Amino acid sequence: MSYTAEILCVGTELLLGEILNTDAQFLCQELSALGINVYYQTVVGDNPERLERAVELAKSRSDILITTGGLGPTCDDLTKQTLARAFGKKLVFDPVSAQRIRDYFERRLHTGQMPENNLQQAMLPEGCVILQNDWGTAPGCIFESEGRHVVMLPGPPSECRPMFTHRVAPYLQALSGEVILSRSLRVFGMGESAVEQLFRARMDALTNPTLAPYAKTGEVELRITAKAADEAEARALIAPVEAEVRAKLGDLVYGADVSSLEEVVLAELRAKGLTLSCAESCTGGLIAKRLTDLPGASAVFKGGAVTYWSQAKAALLGVPQELLDQYGAVSREVAVAMAEGARRAFDSDLAVATTGVAGPDPDDRGNPVGLVFIALSTPQGTFCRRADRSMTRERVRVCAAHHAFDLLRRHLGGLPLELNLVF
Amino acid sequence: MSYTAEILCVGTELLLGEILNTDAQFLCQELSALGINVYYQTVVGDNPERLERAVELAKSRSDILITTGGLGPTCDDLTKQTLARAFGKKLVFDPVSAQRIRDYFERRLHTGQMPENNLQQAMLPEGCVILQNDWGTAPGCIFESEGRHVVMLPGPPSECRPMFTHRVAPYLQALSGEVILSRSLRVFGMGESAVEQLFRARMDALTNPTLAPYAKTGEVELRITAKAADEAEARALIAPVEAEVRAKLGDLVYGADVSSLEEVVLAELRAKGLTLSCAESCTGGLIAKRLTDLPGASAVFKGGAVTYWSQAKAALLGVPQELLDQYGAVSREVAVAMAEGARRAFDSDLAVATTGVAGPDPDDRGNPVGLVFIALSTPQGTFCRRADRSMTRERVRVCAAHHAFDLLRRHLGGLPLELNLVF
To answer: How far is A17 from chain B (nearest CA, A)?
Structure first.
């Protein structure tokens, strides 16, 4: 059967706009991947009456109620108190949870002094499944009552996310008696609406597995989700749809179940034992920053030169002044010289370079916002790609960095470096 | 009088987790700054029945209902249809809006071919205030009915935000007959809980103006908000509280109504006509990236060297190999040599440098995660600050960049460079 869920986030800080509700997006994504329909998502403050009204409403219209927040001592354990009352359950002391909370504070505080009010977190609804919290102090819980499944999770995303993934998702899967499996294909080189147009008919026709697009800045994720009796069967359902997507998109698909182009590039560089450097003008450090966001980047990334001024392009990368004078800093010739200069200066196997107009204004030679040259230098020669889509400053920069990583992953994978963007 | 508002976000893409609900946070913040209480925030999908039920509920309990999304042709103008019906209003054709929509497509498409269904966006509730959309096609609207104020805004944040700021906020202010003014003080060098502790009693005691803290990664924002009959009176209410905060925090306050440390640094550099460069190891391009996120950075920022490998520190910045051998890459000596090397290589007036252990693992000399040296080189000499707080990789990097900008703004402002962080 198909279940409906409702998400209820508790916290005055959410209603004051002090924090962004990333828990809600995460839970919506995960529930959708589990094949559970979410029809409502509500936020209420730390107020017992309003929370109670929201719970009564949820009880009347949804099979599964998932709450986030309101479990800690600072809010008097509002959520547990209110939900236990709404479903006629008593809170009982759980000595195992209490010991875990004591241990947590001992490890953290060294002094061993724990504010006693923390122990109220060990009071849990009678007969519930306790969700052990290995990422913080407040345990979560699940109980079934009046035909409803009630799940309570802590609010901090660093606790809510792993608690859902490791404790709640298996429970919800068991509920449906099915296995739900997703596979995410990442696409660079075709815009969201073109992808949508290409697959619209198939997306509408498919029911198991489903196929859904998620737009990211400058790229698209296509997620295939299957329900089946076991994992092997789910995989078997996904495989032909994945093959179909790959047949249509070819090498625009840069990876499956990966999180970014740079992750793919870094893994390939490590596998091949190659080193990398970069030279950045319009991206201004973004390529280096994205690479070094990843732990382990130091194994292959030697460094980069952010040469914002022409003077720096000449001084650090040896770009000839004649090139800068003749073609201007935003040119194919300078991009190539920057990439080759970086490879020389850093003594790396490969190097990428960007030069372009990020905006908001055209450059002093009248080059328009969005014009970017992206070069890749290898022992076999240097290749340069041109992008010229007018966008906001942020998007121009993000997409220029995407192009640099795309050139790298194509070179490393032995694919053609040319790319005709489709929008 | 004090109004209560309720936010109703319409969009199946929100319930699927395809997009993050940043509109809700923005509106909560802005409404709170206007002194309007938000008690509920709800998300429903593109479904007329569920939207209608949510509207009925909102009508029964809130003075102001603000919707986002569901205004475009792809969802059959769901929100306008449903709200007009719920409040017994007809939709009437507005020729001015229709012409604006036609013009918008003509400018964008050049071909002048506009899908005709776009014109339904020009159907608006009778007697409403039309909110002209200068940032997209769908106009918003406000109407008053049955003692309720209903506000409809488009969903895309790039339209929702300016529409609220320029069209809705003045309407809501006029409603209360008061002026509400906020002033935001930005603080670096004291943790959120220390700031909270320092001002807790005052925050609880103050009612007009109010004082509220907002935590950001590695810094804190303190917002003072006053209600008054006019702007001058509101300013007069804010001034003594601002003076009080500044007296307690001293030079930890780095700016008022600014958005980041780098914005302050960039403005100061421009005002003084000074140039800057940087040398980054553990921050890996983040300092350069943050500077070049800002339009106009090229006026003062010459460039940076991301010297991830020791070899690059020697080759690009001239850091002596003996220093690297004797003290290791993560040392005061190397940070100083990097900053001085960058100032030389880029021929800039000032330079900052970072070297440290971002994690997740200690470095090969056993230096712990979080140990970072941040140096500033000036014509008067070089200063180095040490930070050693163990945090996640991301936080270590963000805070190291904060330190670099903090050194710069202190130098530019003639303030002491020493800083004892308080948590």
So the answer is: 4
- C-alpha A186/C-alpha A252 separation (Å) is 8
Partner-chain contact B17 A40, CB within 8 Å = no
CA–CA gap between residue A120 and residue B319 (Å, rounded) = 56
* E strand segments, A24-63: 37-44
Q: What's the topology of domain A179-256?
A: Alpha-Beta Plaits (3.30.70)
Q: What is the topology classification, in CATH, of domain A4-176?
A: Molybdenum Cofactor Biosythetic Enzyme; Chain A (3.40.980)
Domain boundaries, chain A: 4-176, 179-256, 261-412
Contact A306 B305 (CB under 8 A): yes
Q: Which of B301, B303, B306 is nearest to B284 (CA)?
A: B306
SS (H, E, C) A174-199: HHHCCEEEEEEEEECCECHHHHHHHH
Residues of A in contact with B304 (CB under 8 A): 285, 305-306, 308
CB pairs under 8 A between A and B: 229
B263-295 confidence digits (pLDDT tens)? 999 999 999 999 999 999 999 999 999 999 999
Interface TM-score (ipTM) > 0.85: no
Taking chain A (423 residues) in runs of 10, the rounded mean pLDDT of each run is: 91 88 95 90 94 95 96 79 95 92 72 71 93 89 95 93 95 84 93 85 92 85 90 96 97 96 98 98 98 96 97 97 97 98 98 96 93 98 94 93 98 94 74
Q: Quickly name the fold that domain B261-412 has.
A: Maf protein (3.90.950)
Taking the alpha carbons at both ends of chain B, their separation in whole angstroms is 39
- Please, are residues A169 and A182 in contact by the beta-carbon 8 Å criterion? no
Which residue in B25, B312, B346 is closest to A20 by CB distance? Answer: B25
Partner residue opposite B305 with nearest CB, options A42, A287, A303: A303
Closest partner residue to A309 (CB to CB) among B45, B287, B303 is: B303
B303:A305 CB<8 A = yes
- CA B126 distance to own-chain centroid: 37
Interface residue of B15, B42, B291 to substitute, partner A, most A CBs within 10 Å: B15
Partner residue opposite A292 with nearest CB, options B39, B278, B285: B285
| Structure tokens given for A30 | 């995960």
Question: Residue A320, SS3?
Answer: coil
CB within 8 Å: A306 and B307 = no
Q: Taking the complete model, does pTM exceed 0.95, yes or no? A: no
C-alpha torsion angle, residues B264, B266, B268, B273 (rounded to 10): 180
Is B417 within 8 Å of B385 (Cβ atoms)? Answer: yes
